[in-house]
Amino acid sequence: MQPIDYGARVAAVAARLRRDNVGAYVGTRQAALHYLCGVFMCWRGAVIVTADGACDVVYWAMDAERVKTEGVHGDLYTFTGSGLMETIVGRLKARNVTGPVGVDLSHPGAAQIAPGMLTAGEYLDLSERLAGTSLVNGVSFLDDVMLVKDAAEIERLRAACAAADAGYRAGMAAIREGVTENHVAGVVEAAIRDHGSVWAWSITGGTEVGAGERTAFARGVTQQGTERQIKRDEFVVIDLHSLVDLYMADLSIPVFFGKPNDAQKRAIACWEDVAATMLAAIKPGRAVRDCVAEGIAVYQRHGLAEHGLPLFGHGLGTCARTRPFMNAGSDDVLAPGMVIALGTHLYQPGVGGMRLEYPLVVGARGAEPFSTIPPKVQYVA
Questions:
Q1: Cα–Cα distance measured from residue 13 to residue 300, given in angstroms and rounded to the nearest whole number
Q2: Sequential DSSP letters for 57-79
Q3: pTM of structure
Q4: Regarding beta strands 352-362 and 367-369, do their DSSP bridges make them parallel or antiparallel, or are they unpaired?
Q5: CA-CA to 126 of 20 to 30 Å: which in 34, 45, 164, 348?
Q6: Which pLDDT tens digit goes with each residue over 241-257?
Q7: In whole angstroms, how far apart are CA 172 and each of 125, 184, 335?
Q8: Dihedral of the alpha carbons of 76, 79, 83, 84, in degrees to the nearest 10
Q9: CATH 3.40.350.10 residue ranges for the chain
């Protein structure tokens, strides 16, 4: 794969800090560790970027030797026990940082917390140790830099989606009457591993598989696999989460096993109309909130707005809890190089549920999907 210039990434964050007269950014999110350090870092740690371009990495001592051996970018310092904040402060003082310090606190308006945000206890500890220093929400200092992907990132995202495609096709092939959701999830995870994925990264149970009534919880965005057996004439959700060279895919396309009844056909027609509308709406220069309004209008036209979610996806990269968030509260304007897991969600109790998670990059003329599978209901006879 194309090499990644981690030094250039650090320099870009440093330039962003200087723009706002901020002394340093302390990134504790896994997104920050992976984006700036270039190695899998699953335990607690931080990457510190100063306004003058220095980069220090603080990481749990029990995994530090592996991280060092596998090529972490930046100067590595370790901590044990609850010493993360103490070690961070030590590095900030050693770098003579006196101005405001940006820390990972929150994505304003987001319902979910990106993995690795500061805990309340850590914030209080840091505040006490840095008495007199202003702590500010530094999420945007990194997110602004990560928002538009370069060619090396697109290559990795495509590879992650190729693994996801293979897993999805294997999952579809495993669907038959009497097999369990768990069995299908296991088939999917074996396939993505065989195609280069190293982690089913989602907190929703890794690979999600749900069937029948378990697809149709009101607003039901989670279907962790269970021992429920799959039956004929019902929807199946397969939602998989592959990771290749620290970059994530998030792929889900509805499956129908058997023949749908009239109510299910109506729901399918609505869902496919919304999915097609959203895919066509993705064009550079368009405000996210305008795209979202188009999708909601289609739900309303079909008379199923109460079952369709006003949430149409999220960004993808070294994290999936990242911009652009495809909802009405977003201030983002689409630009070439942004990568989105485009979403379409319809969950109708008593009928069934359908989910689209569809990785794509915003191209010069519109959406360029990474998946080779069309965003339509897939049928298994």
A1: 42
A2: EEEEHHHHHHHHHTT-SSEEEEE
A3: 0.97
A4: antiparallel
A5: 34
A6: 999 999 999 999 999 99
A7: 49, 8, 34
A8: 40
A9: 6-146
